[in-house]
Write a structure and sequence with these properties.
The chain starts with a helix and ends with a helix. The longest helix has 18 residues, at about 325-345. The chain is of the alpha/beta class and about 350 residues long. Helix 7 packs parallel to helix 13 (about 325-345) and helix 9 (about 185-200) packs antiparallel against helix 10. About 40% of the residues lie in helices and about 15% in strands. Ligand L263DTV3 binds near residues 106, 107, 112, 136 and 292.
């Protein structure tokens, strides 16, 4: 396991361009270039603002018609039987993103609560299958929203992984499972976070969130006319930190260490920890709504194992195989999985 981490956490200056988790969802070819320029200190502020605009799904509506998109990425509810068929004889392992997947997207990140019904469903799910939450938020924060001790948690985009507090039937000594491949960056992240708070305080609506191994700069509540100011402020801080990179989520700029670690690596690490490293009898199911989830979808495609489900009401480029519209549909899908499993085990 130590080797797994070492091999995967070497700095990746050279690889940034190829491996950025924004690759797949880049709406225009030069958006990747834009982020590289920002990351490398080039500072194309206008282009960063374009890129921020593209964070909003409404800007992607015209990319493909909904109907043809749904033909390519059918509803996981409609394809439920096919999914079960593909998983036959294999151990299903569940990976769930939090924001936009288990909880609806809201204006205030501190109020992104999941419903009681969803919590009950996820609890039942974890009784049926090994289940992990994989989030961009810091692990403690996402745990405080989910509050289930039977889950694996991968916070800070997978850079902070911990086994279930209450132990697990799927892993011996799961309580001691801890993987934090970016600890050396903690002081830098704290410093950058303080600078970003200071720099952005004059931009109404901007919110800087310290996610321990990464930082989020939210612009959901920033007037679009002020986005270029915000981009300037972020850029002015980032230019002094070549070991950090900038990515995007939903109306959020994510600042992360340039290590070769993301939600895809977290998925692989957890599969290995669960004893499924070189195993054909495993069927990982990853459900997520965000660009950072694409790294995990991509890994599943590369491994030809399990499948990814994108949560989106709008057509988006994705490495997922199926889609669900919103957290309500996610809950329906999870419930059906639980019912199916309970029926099979005669519970
Ligand atoms: O990987 P995730 O669990 O999806 O976390 C990604 C980011 O989610 C949160 O921000 C997003 O949700 C907020 C609440 O609905 C919303 O206000 C914001 O616009 C979204 O980007 C979280 O606050 C970030 O720290 C996470 O990185």
């Amino acid at each position: 396991m130590v080797r797994f981490i070492e091999e995967n956490t070497k700095t990746m200056e050279k690889e940034i361009g190829n491996k950025s988790n924004n690759d797949v969802t880049t709406t225009t070819k030069n958006k990747k270039q834009v982020l590289q320029d920002i990351n490398n200190g080039g500072g194309l502020i206008n282009s960063l603002v374009d890129s921020m605009r593209a964070c909003s799904p409404t800007h992607l509506k015209s990319l493909m018609k909904q109907t043809s998109w749904l033909t390519e990425y059918p509803s996981a509810l409609d394809m439920f039987e096919e999914i079960l068929h593909a998983s036959q004889g294999k151990q299903i392992v569940m990976f769930l993103d939090y924001d936009g997947t288990l909880s609806p997207i809201v204006d205030d990140p501190d109020r992104a609560f999941m419903s009681r019904k969803m919590r009950r469903t996820v609890k039942k799910l974890a009784n049926c299958f090994p289940t992990a939450i994989v989030s961009g938020r810091c692990r403690e924060k996402v745990y405080n929203f989910v509050k289930l001790t039977e889950l694996y948690y991968a916070g800070s985009h997978g850079m902070d992984i911990k086994g279930p507090e209450q132990g697990s039937i799927y892993m011996e000594d799961s309580k001691s499972l801890l993987c934090q491949p970016a600890t050396e960056f903690l002081p830098m992240i704290d410093e950058v976070c303080q600078k970003l708070i200071k720099q952005t305080k004059l931009t109404p609506g901007a919110k800087v969130e310290n996610n321990k191994f990464c930082v989020s700069v939210h612009f959901r509540r920033v007037d679009e006319n002020n986005w270029s100011d915000l981009a300037n402020q972020v850029r002015s801080v980032m230019k002094d930190y070549p070991k950090l990179r900038l990515c995007e989520g939903r109306k959020v700029l994510e600042i992360r260490p340039i290590i070769k670690w993301d939600k895809g690596k977290a998925l692989e690490f957890l599969l290995e920890s669960l004893g499924y490293a070189n195993c054909a009898d495993v069927f990982p199911l990853y459900i997520g709504d965000d660009r950072t989830d694409e790294d995990a979808f991509k890994i599943l495609r590369e491994r030809r194992q399990g499948l990814g489900i994108l949560v989106s009401k709008f057509p988006k480029e994705t490495n997922a195989s199926y889609s669900l519209q919103d957290p309500d549909e996610v809950m329906d899908f999870l419930r059906r999985l639980v019912e199916w499993k309970q029926l099979r085990s005669g519970a």
